[in-house]
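Can't paste images in this forum, so I'm doing it all in text. The chain is below; anyone willing to post the predicted structure tokens underneath?
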Amino acid sequence: MNDSNLQILQPKNWITPQGYANGVVAEGRQVFIAGQIGWDEQARLVSDDFVIQVERALSNVIRILAEAGGMPQHLTRLTWYVTDKAVYVARRNEVGDAYRRVLGRHFPAMTLVVVAALLEEGAVVEIEATAVVPSKQN
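Text version of the structure:
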């Protein structure tokens, strides 16, 4: 990780995970971001396409994080809720491309949970986040 307030936790002799971290330790201001879906500023879904919703949900996370002075590299945890595992697996490379467009090559601790449905009609992915932003220096 590029920020000195974050450290990856990787037990010795464990295979390095691809696209996420097993654990992260961080110092600073904690930011908790509610689950974000693929909708715009007016709460309208931007598309019914899975990957487009993923990219927008991630963008929404980053926009909220910016309100706390944070950047993608301050993310410590993402929890993804998806309604269709098969779609996620089939489009994993496209999801990875969308992820890197929004977050770059920063990979916090992540969990993916398959759910029967999401609250908002038409939403197929929801992503919640935790970040630790370095404390402001006075």
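DSSP finds three helices and six strands in the chain. The beta strands are 6-9, 23-26, 29-36, 75-82, 109-114, 125-133.
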